[in-house]
Description:
By secondary structure, this protein is of the alpha+beta class.
Amino acid sequence: MERNIKEIVSHFSIEGECLDFKKNTTGHINDSYYIDTKSPDHPGYFLQWINSSIFRDVEGLMNNICAVTGHLATKLAENKDLDFKVLEVIPCKDGKNFYLDPDSQYWRLYIFIDNAHGYNVVENIEIAYEGGKAFGLFMSLLVDLPAKGLTDTIPDFHNMEKRLETFYKSLTDDKVNRVKDVAAEIEFVKKRAEQMLSIPALIKSGELPLRITHNDTKFNNIMFDSSDHALCIVDLDTVMPGSILFDFGDSIRTGANTANEDEKDLSKVDINLPIYEAYSRGFLKNTRSTLTEAEINNLAFSARFMTFIIGLRFLTDFLDGDTYFRTSYPDHNQVRTKVQFRLIEAMERNAEKMNAIVIKAIEE
Ligand code: GN1
Ligand code: MG
């Protein structure tokens, strides 16, 4: 679809105007653009097209984001020593927090965070520790925001029962005749499905509490400044009630993998235990006082749980003919699945060590 980015930006209350823009290629769901005002007096902006076939309630989603960023901004203003930033939503000229264009496409605008960078593969333990502290702080600053006020932007997002049901349906439908290509991956899922259902059982029984969580804590959603201090958490589309296990687990899936999420050479995939340890220490430094026993007991396992659920979603999307995640080549989702499952095997071999690391970090 041809998009007139400058025209779209003109609907927002910005300082200056959009004189140039550049598409950003990370992210599997939304489209993002850096908006250049080419002026030392005005900030740059970050424009996003919101994929409303995935986020069905954009109004609810934007209200979530405004509630969360508003709460964080107040907290950070009260605690100046925290040295942390929060995304700033720029409203439209009509006061709405998103712009709906004549083609019924949704857009939002943030202030661009200058001189910041993220990591797809974490380079050292200092960065991992900083990242853990950042997501821990994010969650701990949100403990007193009532979860009731937030909508589920994607219902059942990390609901393993539902994800398995959907997977089995895709298996039966075999829409694009790909079941024959993934026999080993299907076997992998079946072998572990029951064990994975332990988490939804604990959520249902109330042993695992629902909090406000980020739910998409890929390590590259942490922005760092030029001295590798963690500055800000981005990608707030899925901030909604969830378990803290989702947040811890997904950061380990992405941050403690020695390879990229779509590495073709599986021999490069492994769990980096020093990175895992550093992340755990940072995360627990800022969350340990709020965690329950059931959360602590399942923290190490949550890394396997989240790697499994996302691997399962990649596999399901492969079977459905790649309709959800953006792909760059035909078997991209299969490659992503294989990486996730290889990482789970590595974590299974290291399960005892991973548990011991959490216990040690809790006691620190
Ligand atoms: C999607 O678009 P991105 O990269 O922020 C997905 C996450 C997956 C991730 C896998 C809303 O996130 O759940 O973990 O891809 N987001 C949504 O890389 O489905
Ligand atoms: Mg995301």
